[in-house]
Input
Amino acid sequence: MSKVALVTGGMGGLGVAMCKSLAKDGYTVVTTYSGNEEKCKNFLDTTKAEGFNFKAYICDVSKYDSCIKVVAKIKAEVGAVDVLVNNAGITRDGQFKKMTKESWDAVINTNLNSLFNMTKPVLDGMLEKGFGRIINISSINGQKGQFGQVNYSAAKSGVHGFTMALAQEVAKKGITVNTIAPGYIATAMVMAVPEEVRNKIIAGIPVGRLGTPEDIAGLVSYIASDASSFMTGAEIAINGGQHTM
Ligand SMILES: NC(=O)c1ccc[n+]([C@@H]2O[C@H](COP(=O)([O-])OP(=O)(O)OC[C@H]3O[C@@H](n4cnc5c(N)ncnc54)[C@H](OP(=O)(O)O)[C@@H]3O)[C@@H](O)[C@H]2O)c1
Output
């Protein structure tokens, strides 16, 4: 039986490429969506036409109960999760002096509390199997901070604290926990930035281009594989060399 990979937010800019890459590696891939049925149907139809067979479950990663229910449902219908990619995330940008409590809470709940909410119900099954891969998607802005993103930078920085601590707790159980910190990737969000601003961003990337979702998905596939078993508690920067600037 093939291993089960769960990618949260698998219908987003990076998530689709992660789902496809893991499916090509032979995993049964399950993803979540937060409620937009039309977007979900469109994703399932489009990927089915391309030869994929994804399963999608409604889940709000910011709510613990929702995550417990969805993991139990996936276990019953598909199997226990072997690979968890905590990928779902949002931004609510604005300078701190204007930042509302709502936008702070939304970003912390969706980008950081979601790691507790999703990992907690998945971990027992991994411990039972003696195998697991937990891959947490952070950001370059969690490593260096970003003007207008106090909430997002705090959440994404917290992601790696979670990774390092949990990695130590499960290291002898066949489970690895790692963080991927992408730089600027050519997703709809980044492509919506005015061209002039985008060009300035690209000028600050040593390789001279934005990343692609496939760049990140390839790294997810590697970390999910047996070949990565000596890598745990790591934060891998994948940003075209921007961290060296
Ligand atoms: N794009 C970049 O350049 C970049 C750079 C660094 C880091 N990242 C990180 O990479 C991850 C993916 O980013 P992306 O660019 O693919 O973003 P995206 O296109 O906006 O996709 C985000 C996904 O998260 C899901 N999501 C949001 N809130 C949710 C909730 N409460 N419950 C369940 N799912 C929820 C969305 O699902 P629904 O649409 O169904 O709500 C969507 O599928 C994020 O963690 C982001 O912070 C991205």
Summary: The first helix runs from residue 15 to 24. The first strand starts at residue 4 and ends at 7. The chain has one domain: 4-233.
